[in-house]
């Protein structure tokens, strides 16, 4: 017999393997038919596990693809929100600039209107003063002319009366002298001639007094006509002042109409600016509604995916690490969707404030 090998020091003998039990029996205890049935069951389980593995791989690919699509849509929505924010900032800046320009135009027009009114008032006062001075000068000249005419008429009348008295005295002296010189014979003849001459002189005196009366009446008529002329002149001057005032009023009305047209034009520009800003706000609201629809679709898709994922988690024992990773990704997507929803709500609030 060959010599027995000594057991090496420090090594323990191997433990006998525990036989695998199949349905309470070991492999050696099972018959051939039982082993074949067990092999068939194992193959069926293997096929089922493979199918489940393929199914979960497909679901994992779907979730990954959905994750990529969600991330891409999230980036698109964020880019669109940034664009909306930028458009709103530009629209607000344009609106503020238009409002500032409109206020400057209104202030400039008010200043011009006040300057025009002040100039017209000063021109009207100066014209009134000039017209009053001219009226006073004309009245003074007219009074002076009337006084000169009356003085000339009085001097002529006094000369005629004086001449008449002197001629009467001369006739009387001449008659007395003839009576004394020629004697009684010529007394009657001279007296009768003197009487005739005296009558004729008296007649001349009566005529002269009559003419003087007519002349006085004529002077009174001249005075009345002078007063009438002065009244007419006064009325003419007043009418001239009224015409100037009417002209000034007409100019003021035309200036007022021009200012009203400018103001209407500015109001129209302001209405157009408000309309453009309202349309821009409505357009931004429409874009916000579209973004909300997209977010709603993403939320519904994400909810469907979560439901599918919960079904998958409850139906199988998938790798917990992969599932936790997928769950974290879905939570990140949910957080991003909530942030976008909050931004959209803020944008809608700001748009409604600007629209009001």
From TrEMBL:
Task: Work out whether the entry's keyword set contains Coiled coil.
Answer: yes
| Predominant localisation class | other
Q: Where is this region: Disordered?
A: 1-22
**A Pfam family per the record:** GAS
Instruction: List UniProt keywords, sorted A-Z.
Output: Cell projection, Cilium, Coiled coil, Cytoplasm, Cytoskeleton, Flagellum, Microtubule
**Gene Ontology CC entries for this record:** Golgi apparatus; microtubule; motile cilium
Bias (Basic and acidic residues) occurs at: 1-11
The UniProt entry's coiled-coil ranges are 25-94, 121-148, 242-276
Decide whether keyword DNA damage is in the record.
Answer: no
Q: Which GO terms describe its biological process?
A: flagellated sperm motility
Gene Ontology molecular function terms on file: microtubule binding; small GTPase binding
Regarding protein family, the annotation reads:
Belongs to the DRC4 family.
**Record's protein name:** Dynein regulatory complex subunit 4
Q: What is the lineage of its organism?
A: Eukaryota, Metazoa, Chordata, Craniata, Vertebrata
């Amino acid at each position: 017999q060959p010599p027995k090998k000594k057991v090496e020091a420090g090594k323990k003998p191997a433990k006998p393997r525990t036989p695998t039990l199949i349905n309470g029996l070991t492999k050696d205890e099972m018959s051939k038919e039982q082993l074949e049935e067990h092999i068939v069951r194992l193959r069926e389980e293997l096929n089922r596990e493979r199918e489940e593995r393929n199914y979960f791989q497909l679901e994992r690919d779907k979730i990954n693809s959905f994750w990529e699509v969600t991330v891409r849509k999230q980036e698109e929505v964020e880019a669109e929100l940034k664009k909306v924010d930028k458009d709103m900032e530009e629209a607000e800046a344009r609106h503020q600039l238009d409002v500032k320009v409109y206020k400057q135009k209104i202030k400039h027009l008010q200043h011009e209107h006040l300057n025009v009114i002040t100039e017209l008032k000063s021109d009207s006062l100066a014209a009134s003063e000039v017209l009053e001075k001219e009226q006073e000068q004309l009245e003074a000249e007219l009074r002076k002319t009337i006084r000169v005419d009356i003085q000339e008429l009085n001097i002529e009348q006094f000369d005629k009366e004086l001449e008449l008295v002197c001629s009467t005295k001369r006739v009387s002296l001449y008659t007395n002298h003839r009576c004394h010189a020629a004697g009684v014979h010529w007394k009657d003849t001279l007296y009768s001639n003197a009487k005739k001459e005296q009558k004729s002189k008296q007649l001349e005196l009566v005529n002269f007094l009559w003419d003087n009366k007519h002349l006085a009446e004529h002077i009174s008529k001249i005075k009345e006509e002078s007063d009438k002329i002065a009244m007419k002149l006064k009325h003419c001057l007043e009418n001239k002042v009224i015409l100037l005032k009417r002209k000034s009023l007409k100019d003021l009305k035309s200036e007022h109409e021009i200012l009203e047209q400018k103001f209407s034009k500015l109001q129209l520009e302001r209405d157009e600016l408000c309309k453009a800003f309202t349309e821009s706000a409505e357009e931004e609201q429409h874009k916000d509604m579209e973004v909300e629809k997209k977010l709603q679709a993403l939320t519904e898709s994400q909810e469907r995916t979560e439901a599918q994922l919960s079904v998958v988690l409850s139906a199988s024992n998938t790798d917990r690490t992969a599932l936790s990773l997928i769950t974290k990704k879905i939570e990140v997507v949910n957080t991003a969707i909530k942030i976008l929803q909050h931004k959209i709500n803020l944008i809608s609030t700001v748009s409604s404030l600007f629209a009001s």
